[in-house]
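Structure tokens please, single chain.
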Amino acid sequence: MSGVPCSNKAFEAKQIDRFSDKVCRNYGDLQLKLASGSLVTLTNLNRDNERVKRYWFITYFQQIRYFLVQARGWEGFDYLMINASNGQILRLSGIPIFSRDLKRFVVTSLDLEAGYRPNRIAIFRFEDEGIKQEWSKDYIASGPSDAVWINNTTIAYSENTSKDGGQTLNKKPVNLQLKEGEWKIQMKVTSESK
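Here you go.
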């Protein structure tokens, strides 16, 4: 899902058409149909100030039965994972990248320039009660991106730094591994770091 043209009307229209039995626009409101038949309605606040809020449908994950919606504000944006069974909403700072066994997902967000979004990596786990955050790390002078699951217990990602406000990124490869019930960061050794 990286590179998704979020807040793009044509993209959203295609996605709504693709999942028309579960999603629709009703006079600007985004409506998501739950398994029970009830609706979750997300209403855009079309203001010309800090109170603006616009919701864009991204996709429906059929295998795990969750909707993904982008929520845009005056400055910045985040994502909503909405449970299609009970309507429970989880706010995320980035697009979820799922493990191969679909038991976990990782989210990264990177904003070294404006600072409207956190510089964060977080891992979430699906449980019977819903989604639980399993681990996270916030960055200050750097930030994570490009997360990829190597296997169900290892994630590779880039730790980014910049000297020009985010225009040029210096990427350092990092592995995150689940060992004995804990996530541990392991810096990858490259020819540049020797």
